[in-house]
Design goal:
The structure holds 2 protein chains of 2 kinds. Helices cover about 25% and strands about 40% of the residues of chain A. Chain A contains 7 helices and 15 strands. In chain A, helix 2 packs across helix 5 and helix 4 packs across helix 5. By secondary structure, chain B is α+β, with helices and mostly antiparallel strands. Chain B is about 45% helix and about 10% strand. In chain B, the strands form 5 sheets. In chain B, strands 2, 3, 15, 16, 17, 18 and 19 form a 7-stranded antiparallel beta sheet that branches. A 4-stranded parallel beta sheet of chain B has the order 5-4-9-10, covered by helices on one side. In chain B, strands 11-14-12-13 form a 4-stranded antiparallel beta sheet, covered by helices on one side. In chain B, a hairpin with a 2-residue loop joins strand 15 and strand 16. Chain B is globular, with a radius of gyration of 32 Å. The chains are: A alpha+beta, B alpha+beta. Chains A and B meet through strand 2, helix 1, strand 14 and strand 15 of A and helix 7 and strand 21 of B.
């Protein structure tokens, strides 16, 4: 399935900004599960310097410095991505304890190795209560995929999607206690639970195909960024995606943008500006299957 | 008078049998623990030669003198600010110093030094592989997960060659002597080892307490080590004459004193993250003369905090973009961020094999046996043995978790043990098991008696272009508990200087460079903006404290006179209180209070933002964050000022008591300004201190004059005004006719010959600004100069008869505008250097 993705972020500042340094993680990369056919990233005003690099977890980053005084910063990413995720077989997979043991033995230090993803991280600390919640799904000898899928289903069932309950900085312990949150919270909770049992798991940011209500037209800019998790299931199975917000295995509806230990590793924009005043932020996202694109092209717009 | 025992000639003359008795008393009373090696006594309970020599010399000091000499030296070193330490300062880590150093003889030391040098070399080689080629992990010599659990494993620096050519500048090993008398490595310090500065302080104290003894004993000097460290850092720079900065987390760090001390001793600029910016791949210090390149950073900020853009985004201690500058080779940061990964206990068990693999030799000193539970066999072993200690495998931030610190398996309750085993099952990689280390003992002196105390020794190695150089000495911490298990030691209770004895005379070395190495210069580089800011505000706070003290003094004396007769029904008193309220020294509700009831809070109310104590505390805090720039005497006076105000034994029962406190405080302030005038060199730093003082004084004089010298003013008001601006004597000498409005106004506002007048302050400010560097090259006047030029012209041409309250208010506003313009132009907080804000939001 081929998707056209547009992700536009606009910062508006009360006072003029004379200097900004930003790290952008807005360019999807090609992998075993997706191929990036086209991608572009534009920043307005024009940066005085721009530098591309592959980050520690395999994510593409661009560091830009803006020295033109400005009151608005617009960052627009576009990409055409072919997603070809093979379906995961839940009946397959090693006992989960052996996955934990193999992760500790691994000699793979690369971005796809599991060793960096088994330890707690800044935004996903070990939380005893969440570990115990996860443990219910992980009985002795159970297949890792089966157990993780069970945990995903329980999170979907036990938690309420509520965009008012949490914000971008809410700690997992808090959203777990409230049993409410959004995709980021559910992903963090699932990560805490799996890591509590010693399993290597990553936070994935990206986009989810949305299907407009029947008979309604697609609204431009109405989609959102999404987050889910990816669990390392041993060398043979590799990384398998689970979307606890929707209780679905990650397959052809998910476009991966970046992945890391938690949200802070993949935040689409990290930046420092020299500015005395307040700022506002607007994000517009469109994820459109290629076949619909033909119909929509004028609205979608290309540069 | 007692003979001076520091003088060898007099000491010989004073040779007394009491000394011999003292020595044998010490030795008789000394009881090492059975089965535990001791530094003073060998296993046959015979004192070792080098110790006997030291104690013999020490015994010649009469009873009581050791303690008094030692206390005097400690106080002198600390109070005069040589070490910048203040007793009881918030967050400051402080260990009392043992009057007896720990002494090692040269053969034993040679073995320790060789082992530490080898280990430092091994650490450097490990970092080179871990962050470079990665063969140790790829080839299975080191599990990846034994590295990735460390918060100091900085993934984004993998594959980045360290800009200075090496990862480590300073390495330290914590050592202990085991039951068999052999030395063991307890742990490695590769992040930013602390303690070297404390050791410098210890050496200063001990050598000052017994100068004769120290010089007679052939003790290896520390200076060559620090010289090597300085040269090592300089060799990591691209430029020949590099600017080296010590990057500190700031005054709230518990080892800030040590960092300030080291920076001053080594001649480095002490900077915080805010002082630095990254531009075009290079790192710059913000100074009053613009951005100046920083070539090398000696890092004391933990790796995760050095770059909020790439690493911990919550950090306020770092420099955004620093990692990018490192990747581009634009700055050498030592120790390289990420070096701390080697501090993980998880790695200790691998060291013997890694040493053979990387250096082709065996470890010269073993480390404590350690098993990382991330390996199945090791985990099984740790489960099976109840005689081990358990500890976190990686350095983690402190938490309430009972297993976040080392514990003895045998100390765990049944429930704790069950919890631990369950945690070990869930996350085996988080833990190590360790052999329980028993420490040996060294003598400490308490109440003129010697007692054995368990100790840990930290030994330092610094990198030079020719390899590592080991400090002959170290940072010794002793415990006050007789529990000799290393785990019970914690951070230690006391510290001791460490002497390495040689049998040859020791060359007297200082950090003095040879003639041809030194380029003559008169100004020490460009003043960092932060220091300028601090000095400016120190000047303002001190002057404001003085003005407030003068107001309180007038308050107290006014009541001592016959109030109704002299002060027209207390109107002047009311005006005084209004001035105190306006300056924030007094609460509005206090208006109309009795003089003493207003004086007390104006002096001592900790809640009032303008009370004398608040202003003095602010001065002291401002000064504390730049202790390396203030002279010892300045610092001592400042502390005396605060201590005088907070003296708990002082009672303010009457106006006379308050007056006494005011007078003594004013005297200290006068001494401080005298010191600043006569003892500070006339570089930019002094100018900022003086500018702050002059702006504040000008503003206060304008305020006093507006309140006390208008058309309705009484002679009492004018009299008070002259008191407040300290111009009483000048006026009386010049005008015999008595007080009149116009001549008083002229004297306090316009008279350029009166050092307290507004005019005098303005002209002094003009001189200061003219001497400071300019940032513009377009021939335009910078804003502070423009404001000041206008003001000074107006004041020069004004006539006293014409200036009314409005004109005075205009002067006052101009001075306040000048203060803002100076801040904007020169300081970090000014408009030209607005704070960095983190972009927020889920984008």
């Amino acid at each position: 399935m081929i998707y056209a993705v547009r992700h536009r972020t606009t910062y508006r500042y009360e006072a003029e900004v004379t200097f900004a340094r930003c790290v952008l993680r807005l360019r999807p990369g090609s992998s075993a599960t997706q191929t990036v056919l086209e991608s572009s990233l534009s920043v307005t005003p024009e940066p005085s310097s721009s530098f591309d690099r592959i980050g520690p977890f395999g994510e593409s980053t661009r560091t830009v410095v803006i020295e033109t005084p400005h009151k608005a910063l617009v960052i627009e990413a576009q990409a055409l991505v072919d997603v070809h995720n093979p379906p995961a077989r839940l009946d397959f997979g090693a006992p989960w304890e052996s996955v934990r043991a193999r992760c500790l033995e691994t000699s793979d230090m690369g971005p796809l190795g599991p060793a960096s993803f088994t330890y707690p991280s800044a935004r996903t600390p070990l939380v005893g209560a969440i570990t115990d919640y996860a443990r219910t799904s992980f009985w002795k000898g159970r297949g890792v995929l089966n157990a993780a899928s069970d945990l995903m289903g329980r999170i979907r069932a036990d938690f309420t999607y509520d965009s008012k309950a949490t914000d971008v900085s809410t700690a997992p312990a808090e959203s777990f206690e409230a049993r409410r949150g959004v995709c980021q919270d559910f992903a963090h909770i699932m990560i805490c639970g799996l890591r509590g049992l010693g399993l290597p798991v990553r936070y994935v940011s990206g986009y989810l195909r949305t299907i407009p209500p029947p008979g309604r037209p697609r609204l431009a800019g109405a989609d959102a960024t999404h987050a889910w998790i990816s669990l390392w299931c041993g060398e043979e199975s590799g990384w398998i995606g689970f979307d606890p917000t929707n209780d679905i295995m990650v397959q052809d509806d998910h476009v991966v943008l970046a992945s890391g230990r938690d949200y802070s590793d993949v935040a689409p924009i990290d930046g420092i500006i020299l500015a005395p005043g307040k700022q506002t932020l607007k994000v517009e996202v469109d994820v459109i299957p290629k076949e619909e694109l033909r119909l929509l092209r004028p609205a979608f717009g290309t540069r | 008078m007692a003979p001076d025992l520091a003088n060898p000639a007099q000491r010989r003359a004073a040779l007394d049998p009491a000394g011999a008795e003292r020595l044998s008393g010490w030795l008789r009373g000394y009881r090492p623990i059975a089965g535990i090696p001791d530094e003073l006594f060998d296993p046959t309970l015979t004192p070792r030669d080098h110790w006997l020599k030291f104690l013999g010399e020490l015994a010649e000091y009469p009873a009581g003198q050791i303690r008094s000499r030692f206390n005097l030296a400690t106080r002198h070193i600390r109070d005069t600010g040589v070490s910048y330490r203040i007793y009881g300062e918030e967050n400051e880590r402080s260990w009392p110093i043992n009057p007896v150093p720990m002494i090692l003889e040269q053969n034993e030391w040679a073995r320790i030094a060789a082992a530490v040098e080898q280990r430092a070399t091994l650490m450097e080689a490990l970092l080179k592989d871990i962050y470079g080629e990665g063969s140790l992990v790829a080839e299975g010599a080191l599990p990846a997960a034994a590295l990735t659990g460390s918060p100091d494993f900085i993934r984004s620096l993998r594959g980045v060659p360290p800009p200075g050519g090496r990862y480590l500048q300073l390495y330290a090993a914590d050592l202990a002597r085991g039951p068999d008398g052999r030395w063991w490595v307890l742990g490695d310090r590769t992040q930013a080892p602390s303690g070297a500065g404390y050791e410098l302080e210890n050496r200063l104290v001990v050598s000052r307490a017994y100068p004769g003894l120290y010089n007679a004993m052939n003790v290896e000097r520390l200076a060559p080590f620090f010289d090597a460290m300085r040269k090592g850092l300089a060799s990591a720079a691209e430029r020949v004459d590099p600017r080296i900065c010590l990057l500190t987390p700031g005054p709230f760090s518990e080892t800030y004193f040590e960092q300030a001390h080291l920076a001053r001793y080594l001649g480095f600029l002490l900077v915080e993250g805010d002082d630095l910016v990254v531009r075009d791949g290079l790192v710059y210090v913000r100074t009053i003369a613009g951005l100046k390149r920083a070539d090398v950073l000696l890092r004391r900020v933990d790796a995760d905090f050095v770059d909020p853009l790439e690493l911990n985004s919550a950090s306020h201690l770092g420099v955004p973009g620093l990692l990018e500058a490192i990747r581009g080779g634009g700055v050498s940061v030592l120790n390289m961020p990420g070096s701390g990964v080697l501090e993980s206990k998880a790695l200790l068990g691998f060291m013997p094999r890694l040493c053979r693999r990387l250096l082709g030799e065996d470890l010269k000193m073993p480390n404590v046996a350690t098993w990382w539970c991330g390996q199945a066999a090791e985990q099984a072993l740790v489960r099976s043995r109840s005689d081990l200690a358990i500890a976190p495998a990686f350095n983690l931030p402190p938490s309430g978790d009972p297993f976040a610190r080392p514990r003895l398996m045998s100390d765990l309750t049944r429930a704790e043990k069950a919890e631990f085993l369950a945690r070990l099952e869930d996350r085996p990689g988080d833990f190590v098991g360790q052999e329980v280390v028993r420490l040996s003992t060294t003598p400490v002196m308490r109440d003129d008696r010697l007692e054995p105390a368990p100790f840990v020794l930290r030994v330092y190695a610094t990198a030079t272009p020719d390899g590592f150089c080991v400090m002959p000495g170290g940072f010794c911490r002793t415990s006050d508990q007789m529990d000799v298990r290393a785990i019970s030691m914690g951070e230690g209770a006391r510290t001791a200087d460490v002497w390495v004895m040689t049998d040859r005379p020791v060359e007297r070395v200082t950090l003095m460079a040879s003639q041809d190495e030194v380029k003559v210069r008169r100004i020490l580089g460009h003043l960092p903006s932060r220091a300028a800011d601090n000095l400016f505000w120190l000047g303002r706070y001190l002057e404001r404290a003085e003005a407030t003290l003068r107001l309180v003094r007038s308050l107290c004396t006014s009541l001592m006179d016959s109030e109704a007769a002299l002060h027209g029904e207390g109107e002047t008193l009311t005006k005084l209180e209004e001035l105190l309220i306006a300056s924030g020294a007094l609460d509005e509700k206090a208006l109309g209070a009795r003089a003493l009831d207003a004086a007390k809070p104006a002096l001592l109310d900790l809640e009032a933002k303008g009370s004398v104590i608040t202003l003095v505390r602010r001065s002291r805090r401002t000064a504390a964050s730049m202790r390396e720039r203030l002279s010892a005497d300045f610092w001592t006076l400042l502390l005396n000022l605060e201590n005088g105000l907070t003296d708990p034994t002082r009672r303010l029962a009457s106006e006379a008591d308050a007056l006494q406190l005011v007078e003594s405080s004013l005297q200290i302030l006068a001494a401080l300004s005298g010191l600043a005038q006569e003892n500070m060199n006339r570089a930019a730093g002094w100018r900022f201190l003086d500018m702050g003082r002059r702006i504040e004084r000008g503003v206060n004089t304008c305020r006093f004059t507006r309140t006390l010298a208008d058309a309705e003013s009484t002679t009492d008001d004018l009299d008070l005004l002259l008191d407040l601006v300290d111009s009483q004597i000048t006026y009386r000498a010049r005008y015999l006719v008595g007080l009149a409005l116009t001549p008083v106004r002229d004297m306090v506002m316009l008279d350029a010959f009166n050092t307290r007048s507004v005019a005098f302050q303005v002209f002094a400010l003009r001189e200061h600004l003219a001497a400071l560097p300019s940032l513009v090259d377009d021939g335009m006047m910078e804003p502070p100069n423009r404001i000041l030029r206008q003001l000074s012209t107006e004041i020069e041409t004004a006539l006293a008869a014409d200036i009314d309250a409005d004109a005075i208010e205009r002067f006052e506003d101009a001075l306040l505008g000048l203060s803002t313009a100076v801040a904007d132009r020169y300081f970090l907080r000014g408009a030209n250097a607005v704070p960095t804000i983190k972009l927020v939001g889920l984008a």
